[in-house]
Design a protein that fits this description.
Radius of gyration: 17 Å
Largest sheet: none
Distance between the termini: 42 Å
CATH architecture: Up-down Bundle
Bound molecules: protoporphyrin IX containing FE
Strand content: under 5%
Length: 127
C-alpha cells in the first residue's frame, strides 16, 4: 500500500512525459516536463518520503534533510518550466499571462517560492 502511493505519483509523471514527447517532442515539451518533474516527482516524493508511513527511511533527521533538498529541487524545476514558457512566448511575440492557466500557473509559482523559501528558515530558528 505504501509503495502504491509512489507508483501512482511516478506513473502519472511518466504518463505526462510520454504524452508530451511522443511521437515527437517540440521545444514546448520542456514546459510540461519541468512542471511534472517539479510538482509530481520532486514535490510529491518530498512529502511522501518525509512521512513516517510512506518513507523507507526511519531516521527523522535524514527525512527532514531529504524533504528540504527535494522541495528546493521542485522549486528549481518549476521555475525552469516557468522561465522556459516565458522565453518561448517572448520569441513567438506573444503577450504574457493572458489565460486562466497562465494566471493560476504564475500564482502557483509565486506560492511555491514562498513556501520553499520559508521551509529552510524553520531549520534556523531565531533568538
Ligand atoms: C503546475 C504546473 C504548471 C504551471 C505552474 C504552469 C505555469 C504556466 C505559466 C505561468 C504560463 C504563462 C507563461 C507566460 O504567460 O509567459 C504557462 C503557459 C502555458 N502552459 Fe503551463 N504550467 C504548468 C503545466 C502545464 C502543462 C502540464 C501543460 C500542458 C502540456 C501546460 C501548457 C501551457 C501552455 C500551452 C502555455 C501557453 C499558453 C498560456 O499562456 O496559457 N502547462 N504555464
Amino acid at each position: 500500500m505504501e509503495l502504491l502511493a509512489h507508483l501512482i505519483v511516478l506513473g502519472m509523471a511518466g504518463f505526462i512525459l510520454a504524452v508530451s514527447w511522443y511521437p515527437s517532442g517540440s521545444y514546448f515539451s520542456w514546459h510540461p516536463t519541468f512542471m511534472s518533474v517539479g510538482y509530481l516527482v520532486f514535490m510529491c516524493e518530498a512529502v511522501l518520503l518525509f512521512h513516517p508511513k510512506f518513507s523507507p527511511i526511519s531516521d527523522r533527521g535524514l527525512r527532514v534533510k531529504l524533504h528540504v533538498v527535494m522541495q528546493v529541487s521542485a522549486l528549481i524545476s518549476a521555475l525552469a518550466g516557468g522561465v522556459h514558457i516565458y522565453n518561448l512566448k517572448n520569441s513567438a511575440g506573444k503577450e504574457h499571462v493572458t489565460t486562466w492557466h497562465a494566471f493560476f500557473g504564475l500564482l502557483s509559482l509565486i506560492m511555491t517560492s514562498w513556501v520553499v523559501i520559508g521551509g529552510p528558515l524553520l531549520l534556523y530558528p531565531g533568538p
